[in-house]
Each structure stands twice: as structure tokens, then as C-alpha cells.
User: Which sequence fits this backbone?
């Protein structure tokens, strides 16, 4: 089984910073991409940032210049450094991994896995 465990959410004042972490564990053959998504009350889940296996990052326009996505391959952990937070950043943040698992002696097909979500609240 694959587990994505997030941490680092919380309450912060506008202009403050938080760092989210997502540790991936399990019988993993390869991680092809990872991403951070968020969902605010009454809104659809949206992509915040993503990173490919080759290290290419992509950010939503709303967070460019404020958020930084990084990874530690040795620890199978990714991070989202969030600076200059705004009240509109308030949401539940979810970690996503697009990966292949071991199925016995072979690799399974690529699939999406999600963390449980961590709440980020930015007060004005």
C-alpha cells in the first residue's frame, strides 16, 4: 500500500509563512510526478504546484513568486514553502503523487494517490 502523510498546516497571519511536507511511503516502483492541490470551502480542488520526476516545476498564477515546491528524493518527501500568505490561500491542501507500485516482480500501471489533507488558515 502507498501512504502520503502531510504535515505543516496551521493558522498564520497574512504575510506569514508555512511549510507543508508530504512523505510518501510504500512499495513504490517509481514516482512520476507530485503535486500540491487545495480546496477552499465551496470551491473546486485546484492545482497549486507540481513537480515532475525530472525536477520541472509548475505553479498556479496565484502563487507564483510566493510558493516554492521542492523535494528530497532520498526521503521521498516533497515540500511546499508558502511565503507572503494571503487570506485567499486559506484551504485544505492535499498532496498528490502519480506513481507506479510494485506488484510482485513487476510494476503496476501509473495511478494517482492522495494524502489526507492539511488545513491552512490565513487570517487577515
Assistant:
Amino acid at each position: 500500500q502507498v501512504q502520503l502523510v502531510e504535515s505543516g498546516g496551521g493558522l498564520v497571519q497574512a504575510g506569514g509563512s508555512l511549510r507543508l511536507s508530504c512523505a510518501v511511503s510504500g512499495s513504490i516502483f517509481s514516482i512520476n510526478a507530485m503535486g500540491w492541490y487545495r480546496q477552499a470551502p465551496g470551491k473546486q480542488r485546484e492545482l497549486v504546484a507540481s513537480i515532475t520526476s525530472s525536477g520541472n516545476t509548475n505553479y498556479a498564477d496565484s502563487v507564483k513568486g510566493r510558493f516554492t515546491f521542492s523535494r528530497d528524493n532520498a526521503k521521498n518527501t516533497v515540500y511546499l514553502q508558502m511565503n507572503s500568505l494571503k487570506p485567499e490561500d486559506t484551504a485544505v491542501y492535499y498532496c498528490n503523487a502519480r506513481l507506479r507500485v510494485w506488484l510482485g516482480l513487476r510494476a503496476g500501471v501509473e495511478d494517482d494517490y492522495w494524502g489526507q489533507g492539511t488545513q491552512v488558515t490565513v487570517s487577515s
